[in-house]
Amino acid sequence: NKLESLLKKEQRTRADSVKILSEQADALQKITPFADEQIISMQATAAAFGLTDEQIQQMTPHLLDVAAGFRDVEGNALDLNTVAVAVGKAITGNAGALQRLGIDLGLAQGESADLATVMTVLEKKFGGAAVAAGTTFAGQMKIAQQQISEVKESLGGALAPAILAITKDIV
User: Fold this and answer.
1) How far apart are CA 57 and CA 162, in angstroms?
2) Of 48, 74, 80, 123, which has fewest CB within 10 angstroms of its CB?
3) SS3 of residue 5 by DSSP
4) What is the distance in angstroms between the CA of the first residue and the CA of the last residue of the chain?
5) Residue 78 CA: distances (Å) to CA of 13, 16, 68, 117
C-alpha cells in the first residue's frame, strides 16, 4: 500500500510500523466519524513530508481533530488529506498553508514551525473535536456504517474462497 511504500522508501520505520498505524486507524474509526481507509490515506500523505512513523502516529489524532473542527454547510468534515498537506507544509517552512485554513501558529512570515509547536497549537484549538464528532447522532451513524462495512469486508474475505470454489465447479 501507499503508506508502507512511502515509509520503507524513506527508511523511517520500525519493523511493525505499518501494522501499528493500521491498528491506530482501526481504533480511531470506532470512536470518530472517519473511516480507517481515510485515516491511512492521510497517514500516507503525512509520510510524504518526511515524517517518521512515530511522528505520524503522534499527529494522527490531532489531524482528525482539525478535520472534524471544520465543517462545510452540509456538516461534512474537512478532507483529511487537505489537513495533512497543510500541516506537512507548515513543518517544512510554509506556515501559510495552515493560515489559509484559519490556523495561526503565531509565526513571522517565512518562519517554519517544528512538529511539537504545530501539535500544541492544534491541540489547543481543536483538541477532542474528532471524538466529540463521533458522539453526535450523525457521528454515531457514520461509525455504525463503518462497522457494517468492516463486517462486509471480513465476510467477503472469508467467503470468497468458498464461493470461488463453488462457481469453479459449476462452470
Assistant:
1) 37
2) 74
3) helix
4) 33
5) 28, 30, 7, 22
CA atoms of 71 and 61, how far apart (whole Å): 17
Alpha carbon distance 97, 124 (integer Å): 18
Residues in the chain: 171
pLDDT at 10 (0 to 100): 59
What is the residue type of 74? Answer: E
- What pLDDT is stored for residue 138 in this prediction? 85
Q: How buried is 94 (Cβ within 10 angstroms: 0-12 exposed, 13-18 middle, 19+ buried)?
A: middle
CA distance linking residue 138 with residue 156, whole number of Å: 27
> How far is 34 from 64, CA to CA, in rounded Å?
8
Residue with cell 501558529: 105
pLDDT of residue 28: 96
Tell me the mean pLDDT per 10 residues along the chain, length 171. Answer: 67 73 94 93 90 91 92 74 91 83 75 83 92 89 84 72 74 63
Rounded CA-CA distance 53/19 in Å is: 11
For residue 25, give the nearest of 5, 3, 7, 9 by alpha carbon.
Answer: 3
Cell numbers given for 32? 470518530
Note the pLDDT of residue 96. 82
* Coil/strand/helix, residue 71: strand
